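Retro notes (design track)

What went well: tokenization of the new backbones is finally stable.
What didn't: we kept losing track of which sequence belonged to which structure.
Fix going forward: every design gets posted as structure first, then sequence, in one message. First example under the new rule, 176 residues:
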């Protein structure tokens, strides 16, 4: 019994330590989101950093742009929902009439998409900030909210156009 308790405490402390390693966007990027444009590859690096340090975050690459940038989504929820992700997905398809049968869960899926158009300049910064707010295990309000739903964040639907616009802006912003 004593060994089981010690093992449980050890696993719990490792989990807490890994969660404690999640950096804020400002710590990771070296500036506050919104102070300047974040290049797409740095946003991907940050999402990967958070996913590597939070077991309740799953990154999925669903494609690649014409300019070879990865298209990713982050899936976030509570541990219970993440363990039951496929059943929740299937149940949502049943509720939408796309599959036959009755759903066994009542967990909704909320999809947040950013940067649809290339000149939506701050969408990626909003995605980074929203992602951190939801993924931060120290944010009790967000963690409570995630018990009741799955959140999927697509941080940049059009990273090629967005990076092209950001580069143009950065080149021209000091010229008058």
């Amino acid at each position: 019994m004593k060994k089981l308790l010690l093992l449980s405490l050890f696993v719990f402390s490792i989990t807490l330590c890994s969660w404690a390693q999640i950096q804020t966007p400002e710590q990771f990027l070296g500036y506050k989101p919104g102070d300047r444009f974040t290049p797409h590859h740095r946003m991907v690096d940050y999402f990967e950093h958070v996913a590597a340090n939070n077991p309740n975050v799953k990154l999925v690459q669903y494609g690649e742009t014409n300019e070879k940038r990865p298209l990713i989504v982050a899936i976030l929820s509570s541990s219970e929902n993440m363990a039951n992700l496929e059943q929740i997905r299937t149940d949502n398809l049943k509720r939408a009439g796309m599959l036959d049968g009755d759903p066994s869960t009542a967990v909704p899926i909320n999809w947040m998409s950013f940067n649809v158009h290339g000149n939506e300049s701050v969408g990626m910064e909003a995605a980074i900030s929203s992602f951190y707010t939801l993924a931060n295990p120290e944010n009790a309000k967000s963690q409570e909210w995630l018990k009741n739903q799955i959140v999927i964040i697509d941080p940049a639907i059009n990273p090629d156009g967005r990076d092209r616009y950001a580069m143009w802006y950065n080149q021209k912003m000091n010229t008058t």
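Added context from the reviewer: The two ends are 73 Å apart (CA to CA).
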